[in-house]
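Reposting from the mailing list since nobody answered there.

I have sequence plus structure tokens for a pair of proteins and want to know whether others read the tokens the same way I do. The first protein:
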Amino acid sequence: MLFRFWNRARQGGYDALYESNGKVGSSADVTAPLAAFRHMDVPSFRSGEERLILMQHGSYYIGDIQCQPLVDRGEAVLYRGIQKTETYLLHRLTTEEVRVGLMNVHAQSLTDSVVSFNAVHCNLVRCETEFLNDRSFILGGLCRQAGLEPDDHPIRSALYSGYALEQWCASRKFGPNYVKFRTPLTNIRITSFVGNETEVKVIDPNKLEVMETVGCKVREVYT
């Protein structure tokens, strides 16, 4: 399906909902490249059913377009399941040194598509993705170069916490309690779709806006 999609795209036959090349800006602001498309030529789905395709540096996501109603506005809806825990700890970056260091790690990980793909999969530990250089934790080396300790819990949480693009994943697989967020599309890193997941990571946790909580409450923790 992806080859057919790109063949059509080269001929101008695609429907782009959102496109961004990403950038490293002032005030330690880092955004990721990402493109969102509407597409109907997807085998195994009902004929004529529109699907959403997100593309980023070799990683991709294909899902129900209704799951992401804000995509044409450049925003993603994310879910974080916390099983039966009653309080979700939302880490916010308030220390300038930590924030600049973490954004530098993300900037270095986005320097080219190969580094980007390996970095976003580097902490995965599952049989479906072991061929993707998982367990390499290459972000740890970038952390140390930036003067950060990658084993500190707030740092690990900011770098490796996963969020789902579809509500069922948070409520049924990692729930029943979960938090619903919105964030810019350029703030997410796509990962794990090849393992039949809907997972993404976020670049800047400060750009997560809580939309709803189910069975729990949110407490902000400042790093």
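The second protein, same order (residues first, tokens after):
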Amino acid sequence: MGCKIPANTTATVYIPTLNKEDVLEGNRLASKSDGVSFQGWDENRAVFEIKSGSYTFSSNGVRKAITKKYVSSPKISYKDTVLEYGSKLNTEITCDDIDVIIRYTLDGREPDENSMIYTKPIEIEQATVLKAKSFKDRFNPSMITQAVYDFIDPNKNGIEWKLYKGAFKKLPNFETLKEISSGTVYQFGLDKIKVPKHNFALEFNSNILIKKDGEYEFYISSNDGSKLYIDDRLIVNNDGEHGPKQLSGSIFLKKGKHPIKVEYFQSGGSTTLMVHYRSQELSFQIIPGSVLFKK
């Protein structure tokens, strides 16, 4: 089966199998593929959480014929998941299949046959994790589609960035460079920054609010190189010239604010930069702007 997950979202995929090690994504074990995380079992199906991107899954462990097709995944319409406090957004959910029932949740739980039924646009006016799933008689339920709506205070929240020009083969010593532009964004990434096609580097600085003591895992997906620091400690080293690649690292953090820095450079080819985190309390997700505060 093949699937394409929109940018800045995650989804859950269910693969019929008897052993998760029989599930492949492309030509690799799914459990070893970038952006794919094994979550558990649902009867004879292995459940994987996947981040945005294109995937092809197969299984050598299917022993029982699949007699029912799967419903198409619902589509969530939204323009920007980072909103200012006091604003509202009406979100629609659609499905390419006809005669389906779309059920959804607003608290991050997985939708099931007892969840709310979608009948009209949903008004979003506070931090919300919207998950939707399609159901149809004589069909298996669809994969889950997710959208995360985050609300920020522009006077407090933000990531300060600086842009540098140069032909880099690895991340430079930024203290020796002169910035050519700077600004503020609310999520780590390139979408809101006007950058050259190639030969540039970026430095991002903010403070991340940790709401509960615990072990946190941070992920960087980049093309080319990147690094992530917490409390001035290198947590993820994804440096060097390479294609899209995700690496991660863990750190125990106490409740409160901690300095966070991300460095990135691009020499040529396509540009990619995404930063996620997860913990025992948090599912794999983009770091929301509401927990990132200006220095």
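Reply #1 (J.P.):
I read it the same way you do. The radius of gyration is 20 Å.
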